[in-house]
Specification:
Number of strands: 0
Structural class: mainly alpha
Shape: globular
Number of helices: 14
């Protein structure tokens, strides 16, 4: 059984950084600046935050599933053991916030197209989703990754009965990454024009084009287990290399005018996997980062623990409700600061209450079973 009491500070820091970046991108909506550079910079924060979550999630589930697969006679029981634990972790919060969103949206008199798809994580399975519960797009990506990975291991292992299970796990992950990059190639072939807005909703936020991001994190987990010495030895060099690639992607590409309209293949096929691999280069550093300084460790761990609740509550439930009562035209900058402070305070309190009295008891129940 997995020891859930062991926490790695670096991974907690990654979660805290990721949720902070997502919050920064949506807090910008409060201020709604006219400067396009500022808008794009903070939108980039939101993009990076979710990408950090994807790779980190893949890294964590990859280690869990790899250990199950290597140590036991992997069977359908093993696959459902893994899935049951993931579903206990992710589904209760998701369905709670989905129902709250449904109540709010209905009360405000808005219609919800294709509502049923949200209950099976297909709201953005193969095409763009509606504007209802917009942050749920990334959860659909994660949930389908949780299903596809153990079930692929089950089916392919049954068909081929591998002798070297570790190497087989590696090749399956590589094939899955290539498969979902292949879907992006298909998108490129069938898409005549690309703009950044279209790219955001029709490619970046669609499950079938994004699952490779999770599996790249799983690939990291395999490397960390099988090449422990090199994983530790090259952690600083790897992080520097990742930083250099990231600087090129988010500054160099703009300088060279590599835009979706002018270089659609780069954006449709290369950009998203490159972003995932860039974050993967940080994993050796973060996965081994520790601190004993309580004044740093405790708040990071706290934010990490409630990060899932923060992600689900922060936008469509709390921020949009607050902004219904704000007249931007007649609100001063100081008042915007006060609104932001109020929003963050309410968000942290509600997220903690959800974690403490709903999410954690369910997790404790899972561990007992």
């Amino acid at each position: 059984m997995t020891n859930n009491n062991t926490r790695v500070f670096g991974l907690d820091l990654m979660r805290a950084m990721a949720i902070a970046m997502v919050l920064c991108s949506h807090i910008l909506w409060i201020y709604n600046p006219k400067d396009e550079i500022i808008k794009q910079f903070f939108s980039l924060f939101g993009f990076l935050g979710v990408e950090f979550f994807f790779v980190l999630s893949g890294f964590l589930i990859g280690k869990i599933l790899y250990n199950i697969y290597i140590k036991d006679d992997y069977s359908i029981k093993s696959a459902f053991y893994f899935l049951r634990r993931r579903w206990f972790r992710t589904l209760p919060n998701y369905y709670l916030i989905l129902i709250i969103n449904l109540i709010i949206t209905t009360a405000l008199g808005y219609s919800i197209p294709k509502l049923g798809l949200y209950f099976i994580f297909l709201q953005n399975g193969f095409s763009r989703m509606s504007t209802f519960f917009p942050e749920s797009w990334s959860l659909a990506v994660e949930e389908w990754a949780y299903v596809i990975l153990p079930m692929s291991l089950l089916v392919i292992s049954f068909l081929f009965k591998p002798k070297n299970k570790s190497r087989f796990f590696l090749w399956l992950i590589v094939l899955l990454i290539m498969l979902f990059i292949g879907f992006k190639i298909g998108y490129q072939i069938n898409t005549k024009t690309t703009t950044l807005d279209e790219w955001n909703v029709s490619l970046k936020s669609v499950v079938i084009y994004r699952l490779d991001a999770i599996f790249i994190g799983v690939l990291c987990s395999w490397i960390s287990v099988n090449y422990k010495k090199n994983w530790a030895k090259f952690k600083y060099l790897s992080a520097v290399f990742g930083a250099l690639i990231m600087m090129f992607m988010y500054f160099g590409m703009g300088f060279l005018q590599i835009f979706p309209e002018t270089y659609p293949f780069v954006w449709n096929v290369i950009y998203l996997p490159l972003a995932s691999f860039t974050i993967a280069f940080y994993m050796p550093f973060f996965s081994q980062l520790e601190t004993t300084i309580g004044i740093i460790k405790k708040p990071i761990e706290f934010i990490s623990k409630i990060s899932y609740a923060i992600y689900l509550f922060h936008y469509s439930v709390i921020l949009q409700l607050i902004m219904l009562f704000v007249d931007r035209e007649n609100t001063s900058l100081l008042q915007f600061h006060m609104i932001t402070a109020f929003y963050l305070t309410v968000l942290i309190v509600i997220s903690y209450v959800c974690y403490r009295f709903y999410e954690k008891p369910i997790m404790d129940l899972r561990d007992k079973k």
